[in-house]
Amino acid sequence: MIDKIIEQTEEFVRNQLGEDSTGHDWFHVDRVRRNAIHISKAEQQGDPFIIEMAALLHDIPDEKLNYSAEAGRQKLESFMETIPLKEAEKNHIREIIFSISYKGGHGSKLSSVEAEIVQDADRLDAIGAIGIARAFAYGGKKGQSIYDPTIMVRETMSQEEYRKGKSTSIHHFYEKLLKLKDLLNTATAIQMAEPRQLMMQSFLEQFYREWNGQQS
């Protein structure tokens, strides 16, 4: 039964996010799923099924991918009604999904190791080479410029400011992406983040060299 539920969930997510162009497509979801499974095995912690389900569904109710937060929540609920799980299992999956997002940097304490693992897997996909590509895909979709040195980096911001305030794709590295490594929960994820962090730092150094017209 578990395999059938996973297959049903995969199909649902592919249909919902398969053609997303903001970096939240099926391939992102699948990478998060695979990272989460890897972290769970390496740490020898967590319920593998709950982790996989939460990873697969984590972007379904995301406000920025739906007309509204309520519309996203309802989309998730409609799907949850179609799968034969105990209510406690469904509640655990919901709790993970609604607790792991960044929300402008105002994180809250997670209530389970499964949530910590899925959050780490999601954050790993926001950094490194993939993270760089996703940052510019999302910035372009939002209509943000690549970079504007006259705009100040926002050190603190509300959730509303994080979602809708004026920024650029390069600013996003300082406002979120470079902070993620220090917010990871598990030793495995921290180790996986090291080369990704170096990749982003190297990219930014090269970006500024080219921006300023340096020849090498």
Key traits:
216 residues; mainly alpha; Hypothetical protein af1432; 10 helices; 62% helix; HD/PDEase_dom; HD_domain
CATH class: Mainly Alpha
Arithmetic mean of pLDDT: 92
CATH structural fold name: Hypothetical protein af1432
The proportion of residues in beta strands is under 5%
- Enumerate the spans where pLDDT stays under 50 for 5 or more consecutive residues: none
Helix amount:
55-70%
Q: Indicate the structural class.
A: mainly alpha
- The tally of structural domains comes to 1
Q: Helix count, per DSSP? A: 10
Q: In angstroms, what separates the terminal alpha carbons?
A: 58 Å
Instruction: Indicate the CATH architecture.
Output: Orthogonal Bundle
Number of separate strands: 0
Q: Which value, in Å, is the CA radius of gyration? A: 18 Å
Shape: globular
Order of helices and strands: HHHHHHHHHH
Largest sheet: none
Domain HD/PDEase: 21-136
Organism: Neobacillus rhizophilus
Pfam families: HD
InterPro entries: HD/PDEase_dom, HD_domain
Question: What is the gist of this entry?
Answer:
This is HD domain-containing protein. This protein has helices at residues 2-17, 26-43, 48-57, 69-80, 87-99, 113-124, 128-142, 159-164, 169-175, 187-211.
Give a description of the structure.
It is a single chain. The protein has 216 residues and is an all-alpha fold. The chain has a single domain, classed as Hypothetical protein af1432 (Orthogonal Bundle), CATH 1.10.3210.50. It is built from ten helices and no strands. α2 runs antiparallel to α3 and α6 packs parallel to α10. The longest helix has 25 residues. The radius of gyration is 18 Å and the shape is globular. The termini are far apart. The mean pLDDT is 92.
